[in-house]
Write the structure tokens for this entry.
Amino acid sequence: MMTSSLSSWPSRLLHGSHYAVCGLGRNGTAVVRALLDMGATVQAWDDTAPTLPEHPNLTLAPLTDLRAMDGLVLSPGIPHKLPSPHPVAVLARSQHVPIFSDAELLWQVARKAGSQARFVSVTGTNGKSTTTALLTHILTHASIPTAAGGNLGTASLALPPLGDDGVYIIEMSSYMLERLENFHACCSIMLNLTPDHLERHGDMEGYAQAKAHVFDHMTKDDLAILGEDAPWSRHLHTSLEARHIPTLILNATEALSPDDAPMLPGRHNAQNSAACRAAARFLGVDDAVITDAIRSFPGLAHRLQYVATVDGVAWINDSKATNAEASAHALAAYDRVIWIAGGTAKQGGIDSLAPVFSHIGYALLIGRDAPLLSETLKRHRIPHAIVHTLENAIPEAMKHARQLKIPTVLLSPSCASFDQFRSFEERGERFAQLVHAYQDGQKG
């Protein structure tokens, strides 16, 4: 048992263990470092000539034989089934080596170290990051030792040790959820379910099945939270009840008051807030503390993040909206906007946004699939222009905001960022830089 948090995991906690790590991006590199720090022997490889600091327990070499390994950690973006499995995943299955996400390893490590820290899992197509950040803020406000990561920010295995009184809050992507073995959350949140990553999961049924792994190993002492009353949640509710898992279906229908939650605009954030309130109550936090924490929440970077007000026009960074469903929530949160969108479109493009097109005063389209988005806007007679880049979009957005007397410019791309940026974070940061530069130019 660990009654208090340690500064780091014991250096011999995984002594004698052997792991393979495939993929050395942000997640994979953090996993390698954490495993080495805990005394494990690691063989790691990446298809693009990896470089890592030398370590006596680290071998950088192609993964051609895994029989000596206790597990393979496959970076989330590398497929192990669909659309076609990576050769190392095929090798692992043929040699009966388990394939883990690092969230699974964090759970194993915590229990091996003697910690009974509780785990909370957060998933859904949209809203995961805001919910993870808000719940972390609430628990911290309540003086509960907390560490958050996973799909958001810090890789799971790089999170610090927590004692028995601690809570890990893990944002779970469908990719991570497919690679769990013993991971057990005392509280799991599934916010919503709309088509996404279908190329990875085959179809909507496969995607839903991947997401449902968030409730694996839960018991009658745990709590499953379903974020909305919808066919998917009613179906899950039936299966969870059959397993005697206490389940709560939420139905937030109205946006929160700006006085109660100034950084959580829109009905979708009422859903996120309701899920956090239910989870925090289950974890023992008083309602008054929860309410205070929601009011003081500073918001999440790149998710409806206020950037600046220039000549009475507010500029909002929602770069994290990488699909149409996320942008639907963003557009619905404002009466009228100049909308900046585009990048690499997801399946279905922006057709599903038709019910909220009335919120768009003018659209400015950037990135590779701007012509595709333009075709949809033409069909719905939404005024717009293809401007190709954010650099071009900023002055055009200001011009149209002034002409149409629209008080908000919203970057909510509805698309992935990889055509022009390394990440949605880089896209959002560039947007903010350009807005501030424009603001400074106006002052001059």
